[in-house]
Amino acid sequence: MMKEVIAFKNTKCECGHQNPVGTVLCEACGRPLEEQDRESNEVLEMRYDGMARRSQRANPNFIDRIWNFFSSVKIAVYMIILTLLGSMLGTIFPQENTFLNIDPSTYYKETYGTAGWIYYKLGLSHTYESWWFVLLLVMIGASLVICSLDRVLPLYKALTKQRILKHKQFLTRQRVVYQGPVELESKEWVEQASVHIKKRGYRVHTLDNALLAEKYRFSRWGPYVIHIGLIIFLLAVLARGLPGLHMDQHVAFPEGEIKHIPNTSYYLKNEKFTVEYYSEQDLPKEFQGKNKVLPKLFKTQATLYECTANCNDPSKQPTLKAVDHHNIEVNDPMDYKGLKAYQFDYDLTPVLRSVKPSLVDKKTGKDYGTFQLKIKDPERNYKVGPYSLELKEKYNDFGLDENGQPVTKTPNPNAPAFLFLIKGPNLPAEGVHYFYFPKQVDKERFQQDAINAKMNGGSVPLELDVKGMGNVDLSMSTTYLNIRVDKAMPFVWVGAAIVMLGLVLGFYWQHRRIWLRIDDGNLTLGAHTNKNWFGIRREIAAILRKMNLEVDEKSLDNGGNHS
Amino acid sequence: MSGLLNFSSNMFVVAFFLYCAAFILFAVAIMGRRWSNRDPESHRRKWGNIAFGVSSLGLVLELTYFFTRWAGGGHIPVSNMYEFMSFLSMMVMVAFTVVYLIYRKTILGLFAVPITIIIMAYAAVFPQEVQPLIPSLQSYWLKIHVTMAAAGESFFAIAFAAGFMYLLRTVNFSSTDKKDRRQQRWVEIVFFSIILVISFIITVFAFRAAGYESVFTQTKASGTAGQTTSVTQTVEYKLPPIVAPYHSKVESYQPFLGMTKPLFSAPSWMNGINAGRKFNTIIWTVISGIILYGILRLIARKPLGRAASPFLDGIDPDDLDEISYRAIAIGFPIFTLGALIFAMIWAQVAWGRFWGWDPKEVWALICWLFYSAYLHLRLSRGWQGRQSSWLSVLGFLVVMFTLVGVNLVIAGLHSYAGTN
């Protein structure tokens, strides 16, 4: 109770206006409220026009204390500096997400030695995902909100209820001041001056012998607009972490194949992948003859299909409908209803897709016919002439384990092998087992004939033979696309646009105000701007010149703080 | 090279010499104030106008270089280090011209024009051929993003010049007080850093003119025991090798001043093929920098800061402080738009993510955070003048590290921009 009384006493100005606690300059007449401040001749602190802010409450409670912490510009600067330093740390070694397939627990030690190991152990190999970095960003976000609210409301109040006639001390303690006698009668002088001031884009208000001129007030909202934009931006970035708003996949598409995009109802076919290089004559002379290759174009001709029926039934073929076609290039992704496909990488190693071998009698060379063998999804049974072939086993990447048993080493079709059980004329009733390697290199490397002879206790009278390259279907290349969905992006851009708007408002215009009053034929002029004091001094000198008062621009400077 | 490209490079050279002339004229305008039989103010105005005229002519020629190279090369010349650095030098001149037209401070030319000269000379260190664009650069965002970013950064360069001038004007160079001594020392360090850059450029050009070359090979074994494959790489030194690459063999060594073999090898942690060469360049830069600094000290017979401060006599330090702040205030929105927002849009189009924490992106963010901190600090009492001038000097260092250092030291997705 006692404190309130004191506060009450302190904040009542001699002009009769009752100011809230924390007010520096009277809200009405601008007179400094502190006794000591009134005796000083220093330039006034004009931030928020000396209004009280929420963060200046006399008895802060718990919530007030949090509010005060986040509303402090000093704290905000510390957080900016900490974020800056943290960001620097993250660029010392490449971050984990730069690599597609590494084991960070060993990679950093192997590549960068002890320093790399320490870097990894400190968690700096994923600096920007670490809890302390995200916490800093969230705290900056909180600071943006609270700093803005703490200041924008008092500022708004101060600027909407300005009094024209200000206390003389308020004028003489501005950073730009002019004092001197005037020849005309005071009211007439004010009227004439207001014409010249208006010409410079000011809105002018007069009251007898006093004048208030103001322009570009909107510039004061610039910083707050920037902060609103940044908050939207940060929220949008955080929202990308929510399920369903963000998808990011790295998918390989072999040429000519329709492939399902995981977790979507879409399929994408890489019709053709093209890579072009600059020819010798396109390169500068210094590069020619040096075997320098410079890529010119990566292009995937892609068709996007949407599944319309039988989508989640593995026993049935899904029904697909082509919905989009696009030539995907590096700066030109496919975009279908927010699903985007970006050219990322490629692999020019041919991949075997299917072969059409003939079943041939080894002795006579008689051809019983052919069948198509798909490498990826082979059928189980084939009928060739009088013979039946049953697929017993399939190996994508054939190899032998330490016991000599056939195994598949990787799921990639590097060395495909098929084990058939062949039944038919001139063969034992239980049939013969026949290993088939579609690739000629594998056939020789793994000695197909020897394996088959060993398995059946003697040479097999039949043979599978691909007669010519016409019976081989190869996918010439594989393209790697990044498939992305990012539903929060529009908000990211809106945030960025608002930030830009605020920056332009705040930095390319300045809020300028001129107060003047004439007392007994003496002019007192004070002026304030939030930036560019040079500009306002020049403007005022020009205005005074029109009123036949010759002043040096620099002499208007009253010194003091330059913010 | 086509005729147009030849013409373009000639324009570059002529612009360079015009800037040098403008620098001398600005010096005449400032120094000549104290010459006898003249009115200092009218002398400054007259010679200042001549100097500004010459620097503007230089800018016109550099713009001619830029547009003829664009026409002759078929794409905007900002796609490699030579092109980018020369573009940056041009934008520094544009920023200087804008700020000069606002404030009409002759002295600004004396400090801003050398920045352009140094950046231009640095650009010429890099290979100058027009290279065709790789797929990721084939986008109109190349034009928008790179030019805007450079424009913003060039205003930070002007802020650096004005901030440094403020320091030269206000630091008490005759005092032996501990605090003043510390300020003097830091001013001297800034001078020395600038001299290091200059001496790097001079060294490179001196040995290039002499056609110096030594070659090393480095064989690296990789793979597991028993089944090793070795890769042999060659590295050409254009500066006499004081330090050889780690674990390397001399292919050819052109003797220099009686030196017929490298004095020592790079330590094992510098095991990259180019790490030794870069280390060698740093050693040469430091040696020649110390020599150049020594010569300048001998001529001036006092610390360079004290020698330079009389140029700023009679200049209002508040004006310098304001110019520095204003340049940052003009440059900051442009930088935000060009180096961050347009960069994000392009990254979204090209790579499908607007932000990937690539080193170059992170350093652009660091620059932005730095200048944000600067702008917030200016709101507080006591952070105008001295402190904020130091920040504008430091800020430009951060900007230059982002543009050059990241490419040379860290690389990443933007590594195409760096060579050698």
Write the layout of secondary structure elements.
The complex is a heterodimer of chains A (563) and B (420).
Chain A: H1 2-11, H2 35-39, H3 62-71, H4 73-89, H5 104-121, H6 131-160, H7 168-172, E1 176-181, H8 186-199, E2 203-207, E3 210-215, H9 222-239, E4 246-254, E5 258-260, E6 266-277, E7 295-309, E8 319-329, E9 334-336, E10 339-347, E11 351-355, E12 358-361, E13 367-370, E14 373-374, E15 381-384, E16 387-395, E17 398-400, E18 406-408, E19 417-423, E20 432-436, H10 440-445, H11 448-456, E21 462-465, E22 472-475, E23 478-486, H12 489-508, E24 512-519, E25 522-529, H13 533-546
Antiparallel strand pairs in A: 1-25, 2-3, 3-24, 4-23, 5-6, 6-7, 7-8, 9-10, 10-23, 11-14, 11-22, 12-13, 12-21, 15-16, 16-19, 17-18, 19-20, 24-25
Helix pairs in contact in A: 3-6, 4-6, 6-9, 9-12
Chain B: H1 3-31, H2 40-73, H3 81-103, H4 106-123, H5 140-170, H6 178-209, E1 214-224, E2 227-237, E3 243-244, E4 248-252, E5 264-265, H7 275-300, H8 304-308, H9 317-351, H10 359-377, H11 386-410
Parallel strand pairs in B: 3-5
Antiparallel strand pairs in B: 1-2, 1-4
Helix pairs in contact in B: 1-2, 1-4, 2-3, 2-4, 3-4, 3-5, 4-5, 5-9, 5-11, 6-7, 9-10, 9-11, 10-11
